[in-house]
Amino acid sequence: MLFRSKCAYCECRLDIQGRSTTIDNFHCKALYPEEVVSWDNLLPACIHCNANKGKIDTKRYSIIDPSKDNPKDYLYLSHYMIRSKDNSLNSKGRRTIEELQLNNRERLVWPRIEIADSLVHKLEEIHEKAQKLMLHKVINSLGISRITQGITDLLYMVQPQAEYSAFISAII
Questions:
Q1: Is residue 137 predicted with pLDDT exceeding 70?
Q2: Taking the chain, what is the end-to-end CA distance rounded to the nearest angstrom?
Q3: DSSP state of 88
Q4: Strand (E) or helix (H) holding 23
Q5: Beta-carbon neighbour count of residue 169 at 10 Å?
Q6: Measuring CA to CA, how many Å separate 29 from each of 1, 127, 166?
Q7: Whole-number percent of the chain with pLDDT over 90
Q8: Is 47 or 172 the better-scoring residue by pLDDT?
Q9: Alpha-carbon distance 19 to 13, whole Å?
């Protein structure tokens, strides 16, 4: 429930469009076999993030643990790219971005751009409908209903179960 059918690392929806769900052992099972079945160590991950993370020794080479750390404490968004608040080579944010390839253009940046374009389009539609409603100075239940539906659509995009909801929330 914590990750709402999304990858704990990149936020892509799992089990759609051919994306397989894998279970990631945050602390590598080869290095920490005693934690293999510890619930605190198991995270849903897409196959890409799980493979990219691989056998990183997360106790010695720290990356963001999305079940314990708040990514907002380490990361921010700039031009559809995830950036580290602390850009030193050994920072937790920077290592997480690099190791998990969170700025992979094909897999993650282009979908972020498409979602942002969709968000802008939705906002423009709402604005246009509101302007028309104000211009006519007549209460039009259909116009109000369409504006309300547009706002409802926007609110859905930032709900935790929506794909890339943290990204959309950061944009808004």
A1: no
A2: 24
A3: S
A4: strand 21-25
A5: 15
A6: 23, 52, 29
A7: 62
A8: 47
A9: 8
Give yes or no for a contact between 65 and 45, defined as CB atoms under 8 angstroms apart.
Answer: no
Q: Are 44 and 10 in contact (CB under 8 A)?
A: no
Average the pLDDT over 139-163 and give the result.
85
**Residue with structure tokens 């859905």?**
156
Strand-pairing partners, residue 32, are: none
Q: Is the pLDDT of residue 138 over 70?
A: no
Asked whether the CA dihedral 58, 64, 68, 69 is positive or negative, the reply is positive
CB-count exposure of residue 9 (10 Å: 0-12, 13-18, 19+): buried
Which is nearest to 111 in space by CA: 48, 58, 61? Answer: 48
Handedness of CA 123, 129, 132, 134 (dihedral sign): negative
Closest by alpha carbon to 86, among 73, 98, 77?
A: 73
Q: Which residue has the tokens 């991950």?
A: 45
Q: Helix or strand or coil: residue 60? A: coil
| Structure tokens given for 124 | 């423009």
DSSP 85: S
